[in-house]
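dumping this here so i dont lose it
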């Protein structure tokens, strides 16, 4: 019995349903997105020198502001077991 494999996206972005790990204020429209809010986000592995910390892969998440649709990005931070705000 053969099981079909899922195809990996060409741009390495994977859609993930997640909750915000911290509260965010949009830098464009100044609206607040509170911790625990659910979003469909895009996840990608960070490339280059900053892509790994002690062999642990770092990830970048893309979400959109629910009011103005501006993209917001944040990274995992395995050094501090936290998240790091990148833009938005």
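and the seq i came up w/
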């Amino acid at each position: 019995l053969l099981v079909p494999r899922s195809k990996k996206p060409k741009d390495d972005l994977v859609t993930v349903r997640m909750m915000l790990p911290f509260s965010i204020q949009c830098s464009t429209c100044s609206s607040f997105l509170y911790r625990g809010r659910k979003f469909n986000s895009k996840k990608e592995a960070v490339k280059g020198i900053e892509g790994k910390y002690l062999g642990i892969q770092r990830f970048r998440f893309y979400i959109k502001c629910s009011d103005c649709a501006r993209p917001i990005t944040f990274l995992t931070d395995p050094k501090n077991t936290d998240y790091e705000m990148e833009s938005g």
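The beta strands are 14-19, 24-25, 32-33, 38-45, 52-53, 56-57, 59-64, 71-77, 82-87.
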